[in-house]
TrEMBL record:
Cofactor: Fe(2+)
Entry function: Removes the formyl group from the N-terminal Met of newly synthesized proteins. Requires at least a dipeptide for an efficient rate of reaction. N-terminal L-methionine is a prerequisite for activity but the enzyme has broad specificity at other positions.
Cleaved signal peptide residues: none
Protein name per Swiss-Prot or TrEMBL: Peptide deformylase
Gene Ontology biological process terms from the UniProt entry: translation
Enzyme class: hydrolase
Pfam families per record: Pep_deformylase
Amino acid sequence: MAHEIRTFGDPVLKSRATPVKEFDDSLQKLAEEMLKIMRENDGVGLAANQIGRLKRILVAAYEEENGETVEFAVVNPKIEERSEETDKLEEGCLSLPGTRVDVERPTAVTITGQNPSGEPLRVEAEGLLARIFQHEIDHLDGVLILDRTDRESRKQAMREMRERNLARG
């Protein structure tokens, strides 16, 4: 099940993923493959449509205060609550290699969903993990960081991407 990360311009990235209804071995394998791809690319999150699969599943990794890295998958994730407080931070994306733009997001979110076995999950996240969830759920809705930044930053990022593509020939 070799998948490569889809990059800007691939229509699957602007497509909305469909809810998962079957929780079987193939879903577990997909989650494991996504975690592997995320790790290999030094990512902190990955949505299924980034590897061409239009299923509502994301994987994420974060570092706990003790330095231990925690990795997990969330199926059918949904943001239930968002903090009123927001912050604007620079974000990158595995589907937009070399591109970083400022994105304003709530600093905390509560998400619900299921694990790959179908058991219900509810996660209250803040800081980086909240940002990862919002970024990956955006992917599942066909939204990229370029859609979340201001017009001038988007134009600059597009210009830089064109220049990089021309340089590669």
